[in-house]
Amino acid sequence: MLSNMVHELNKVAQNLGWGELNATAIFKLCELMAGIAPAPGAAGKA
């Protein structure tokens, strides 16, 4: 069940243009969904 969730989150992150990122894409996605602004200098661009 958890692997399905991670797969779906990876697909969303990829659709946002973060496909080249590693697991940081999932952290960025969680921040986005929570309404938290990414930290200055965070990897990748939103």
Please outline the helices and strands.
Layout: H1 2-15, H2 24-34
Your description of this structure?
This protein is mainly α. It is 54% helix and 0% strand. It has 2 helices and no strands. The mean pLDDT is 85. Helix 1 (2-15) crosses helix 2. The protein has helices at residues 2-15, 24-34.
How would you summarize this macromolecular structure in one to three sentences?
54% of the residues lie in helices and 0% in strands. It has 46 residues and is an all-alpha fold. Helix 1 (2-15) packs across helix 2 (24-34).
Order of helices and strands: HH
Major sheet, described briefly? none
Helix content: 40-55%
Number of DSSP E strands = 0
Cα gyration radius (Å): 10 Å
Decide which structural class fits the backbone: mainly alpha
Instruction: Output the number of helix runs.
Output: 2
Strand content: under 5%
Terminal CA distance: 28 Å
Q: What is the overall shape?
A: globular
| Low-pLDDT regions | none
Task: Give me the oligomer status.
Answer: single chain
Mean pLDDT: 85
